[in-house]
């Protein structure tokens, strides 16, 4: 085999699929300023989906059906015996298509020229089991290229140097070398009896990275994992004893010099030993991904989703506990170890039994008296046993208030400023606002009303956003009917997520709770409302206050739109609820332990609770369960990730990301030290456009995963369909929040959404059902299984690469771009100040720009190690020396802890829970396009001295993080 082919094979293990390297290198090296120097060729970041030595599966009987039906993990030709569609021979195959209902292939009508998706394999035509051959050319030192000779000569040179430096030991070195070779030759012959489990070229102590077998239907060394590890430990002890005994008799240990101990160390620090001992079979990385892709069963996901969305399961309720038991049972069925339920006691509120104690009514004048229905009336309950939880707001304040009605559009800061400019009295009012719009967070709508002096707040769903104005409504269409009620939480997660009574610490028996009156919670009552009922309220405002502009008008028919005033009809808002300070919730977790860096954590999660049936959010749970089933099969066959994978089903997410936040608070120290990435799928599929939000450092890993798949609606890969879009920062309203902002971990959310902000999904209502999901959410059932495949491949990329694929050169480029966005926003604020006659406020941006430029340069230099690793493996016939392994693991440690170094433990001023001053959410969602919340908060408060202080503090944090990875 030619040297070029060998080099190509090795680059596959350390690089992206074909064609990506240039694009990624261009992205990583894109200019931060016009003055930046172009980095050299060696500064390209090359990550691989590399494979590792793996432990064998546990003992016991094998499931023959799984072995026969699910096929092999393959290499080379790319053919598999599994039921999946991806097959091919020779050159690169096409990416795999998402399996569809009832079949692994999709025969639905496609655009002209559509190529049936299959697995993309960059390994292609090379024989999977052939090992790397030594280079035919001589090395710089004149060696003949043979790996054993290089290793021996390397050791000899070290020992000879020691002889020169210490001439009085002349003659002893040769005896030491003789003693080294003798036990190795004896032990090597004994170990060779283990046959194929040892390296073929350097004897038993080799780690053969390039030679990857197929995932077998049988195991040639049928012992359990602990048995393998114990055997290795036993052999290792024997080796050490023999070496030490041959070096020095026990009675001479105290007489040993430093030089002699250095000689012992030299044996372990050179190529004689490699760190990556066989712990099972090594598998071709593309083959592992193909196995997962081919074995995802779309019908299994659909079957589980039907049950998961068949009954109401609000957090902490009987339905939730039943769901937790079901998920825990499914976790155990996968065969994963350490399946556990972690329980927390948190504050939760609920409506009174049968919905009593809730009321929205016009009480004055008498001729307009009217009472709202509050619940969905047209939903078919025959398919769903049990009662649905009455419509309410999680974490709303309990109360009974009456006041004049005022309409405040979307409830944004600008909307309330407009009402004040119109002299509309807000104090003591009942404010009516609509969902979505410029202020998308329901909690901030209520907070803005509270700050304006309102006594209560009503939030309704307008048909302009997701009702009949958009198209046909349920059941004829995907849009919400007139009685659609969108439940929501009004918990202030932008100030503090999790249990409001235990900020910053886990809600367990050891930690004290604060009083409710001291908690960060809404101070006025609120309720959700259908537009069917809101129509009455809007109509009652006619003639009160001022007529509104067109952008304030919703889609409710047959009404005039007025703001209201102090003489508006009086409305009673009653929300008398049940409150539990210590309500139990249940997180379910399972683990696949990594074999190389088991402390390093890849965490996979999805929310489990819902306001009603929650089919769209439970799709994430169903996908995760199916993905875990396939991971369990790979575990049984013998595959192990390099780093540990934790699977988590979070409870209490709908209230305020409670379950995930409490878990992160409990394990914050461990996560800050060893957490690598959190990958979340929440509301999984509501459309056809792939969306992702996350740390910019994950862009490369995401691109690697997307390059495997075809977009079902186009004739291109998902990566090509995504185009030039980059990760715009972590999500702020998902379970990723605590991992990013409290633990200091990279995090990403993935899913399929409707284009252009389409809000067709009947979110958090009785209509969010299995029937809607299968009829309109994903009618061909192709995006749901596709997301399972993408999620699984991304998990493998993050857990099993030789080098953790986090690229902080991309991170620096995004920092610079968002700093420019912040500067433009600040300049607008400065101009507004000048127009109002205030003195100009200046900020010097240059030090921050210079620091970000330094971070980029340090990141690129830091990434040079990957090229060095590639070159070393080429030179040493694919064997990773012990010293290089140590350096690689240290590289991974630095990569994993980089975002921990970006935390500011003094927190965002005014919001002490948030430790990330780059990605913490803004106080108002209309500013979510901006990063750097501490600076934004200061500018919003017109405190320019504080803004300059926060900018300099952040600059120092970035500089320290840059120094952390500086080589």
Automatic annotation (TrEMBL):
One Pfam family here: PA
Classification via Gene3D superfamilies: 3.50.30.30, Transferrin receptor-like, dimerisation domain, Zn peptidases
Positions of the Transferrin receptor-like dimerisation domain: 843-965
Residue ranges with Polar residues bias: 42-52, 95-109
InterPro entries the UniProt entry points to: PA_dom_sf, PA_domain, Peptidase_M28, Peptidase_M28B, TFR-like_dimer_dom, TFR-like_dimer_dom_sf
Compositional bias ranges of the Low complexity kind: 120-140
Compositional bias of kind Basic and acidic residues: 1-14
PA domain sequence ranges: 401-468
The Peptidase M28 domain, residue ranges: 587-771
Ranges for region Disordered: 1-153
GO MF, one example: carboxypeptidase activity
Domain of life: Eukaryota
Species this protein is from: Orbilia oligospora
Protein name as catalogued: Glutamate carboxypeptidase 2
Matching CDD domains: PA_GCPII_like
Classification via SUPFAM superfamilies: PA domain, Transferrin receptor-like dimerisation domain, Zn-dependent exopeptidases
Protein family per UniProt: Belongs to the peptidase M28 family. M28B subfamily.
PANTHER family assigned to the protein according to its UniProt record, in alphabetical order: CARBOXYPEPTIDASE TRE2, PUTATIVE (AFU_ORTHOLOGUE AFUA_3G10650)-RELATED, N-ACETYLATED-ALPHA-LINKED ACIDIC DIPEPTIDASE
Comp. bias regions, Gly residues: 77-91
